[in-house]
Design goal:
5-stranded mixed sheet, globular, Alpha-Beta Plaits, 19 strands, alpha/beta
């Protein structure tokens, strides 16, 4: 059965909340109606006319892209120009586009996490911490016999996750009282009579950015017409988020050897590197896309080499002068690695939520460069 586009957006934002995006960025819905129904979703790094036509041909009513369609404001949409033709095709074929850009870069489990994992880095941490996730405590009162249903709904919506543990809750038994008034339709009890019910106080932890989704999921799963719940702010320090990752190889290798590992791991035909090829490297910084400007932070984090894309001539000179090597694996190459991981995440979350949606990856190569 198809689902609303908005339900897929919610799943993406559980992984990469829009609040993690840089101020200049424009994540979120680019084109389309969040109320539209879809049963097939296509993932793409970029959206051009060829990707849009591929989605149309494969029956994908939603494209989740990394790069947004709109960063700079449009003054007009002209169908006789490439950008207008693209927007016209998307709207004419009822294809929505939703983008997760720097929020997907900056989140744990996003572009840079996947890139670090792909290159075999250990003891990985955020290179440029921008903040920490904040938590709330949710306590909801659930009648006996419905606790498991509500607990599972909370966890599937993003609550109850502590480190690598999910479904983390605590419950205490008690007695709930209420009096249904005129106009109510109580699940238990009679209108005008005080009712006493065996209930459990179910407590769990909720990332602040997931509060709305968690409450909606709790209310859908709860049997009561009006569920009673409390939210408390917590001082617990959540996961750090921000641009780039830094970690270490199990043992030192030469820059040349590591460059070969990067080529193989990212399936690249070629790359550029700066530094003495036979010099040793072990501490590695990564930043998918255009991350050369972060080289001072990489150096401060003790990195021997920075893996990124779009390294410009003068930035390369500055890095080498400062004593940090670099590998330019391309904008496309350092970001495309997230697509299979995003597909796996969405497929798993859709299955857990009972959404029968097929997640596919675009087969159009949008890398503008050809390597001879």
């Amino acid at each position: 059965m198809p689902v609303r586009c908005k339900e897929i957006f919610n799943l993406v934002e559980e992984l990469a909340p829009c609040r993690l995006a840089e101020n200049w960025d424009n994540p979120g819905l680019q084109v389309g109606d969040p109320r539209s129904w879809v049963d097939r979703v296509m993932l793409a790094l970029d959206v051009n006319i060829n990707v849009a036509r591929e989605a149309g041909g494969k029956g994908a009513g939603l494209i989740i892209s990394h790069h947004p369609l709109f960063i700079k404001p449009y003054r007009s949409v002209r169908l006789d120009r490439p950008d207008g033709e693209l927007v016209g095709y998307l709207l004419g074929n009822n294809i929505a586009v939703y983008s997760a850009h720097t929020n997907l870069d900056n989140t744990v489990g996003g572009v840079n996490s996947v890139l670090a994992e792909k290159l075999g880095l250990k003891d990985v941490s955020v290179m440029c911490p921008a903040g920490r996730e904040r938590y709330l405590k949710l306590a909801v009162f659930v009648p006996d016999g419905h606790v498991e249903e509500v607990r599972n709904a909370l966890s599937e919506a993003g609550a109850g996750w502590i480190g690598n543990y999910s479904h983390c809750t605590f419950m205490t038994p008690g007695t709930g009282t209420f009096k249904p008034l005129e106009g109510t339709n109580p699940y238990i009890g009679r209108t005008g009579e005080i009712e006493q019910v065996a209930e459990y106080r179910l407590e769990t932890i909720v990332p602040s950015g997931e509060t709305d989704a968690v409450i909606r999921a709790m209310q859908r799963a709860h049997p009561y017409e009006e569920a009673a719940y409390d939210l408390y702010p917590l001082e617990n320090a959540g996961p750090v988020y921000g641009p780039g990752m830094v970690g270490s190889l199990p043992q030192p290798v030469t820059l040349r050897q590591f460059a070969e590992k990067v080529k193989e791991g990212l399936s690249l035909p070629a790359l550029r590197l700066g530094g003495v090829p036979e010099s040793n490297v072990q501490r590695i910084a990564v930043c998918g896309g255009s991350g050369a400007d972060l080289w001072p932070e990489a150096l401060k984090a003790g990195a021997d080499v920075l893996v990124t894309g779009d390294v410009k001539y003068h930035a390369a000179q500055d890095m080498l002068a400062a004593g940090i090597k670099f590998i330019d694996a391309g904008h496309y190459g350092t970001e495309m690695v997230v697509m299979p991981a995003l597909r796996g995440y969405l497929a798993e979350r859709c299955k857990a939520a009972g959404m029968k949606v097929e997640i596919i990856i675009s087969q159009v190569n949008t890398d503008p460069f050809t390597y001879l």
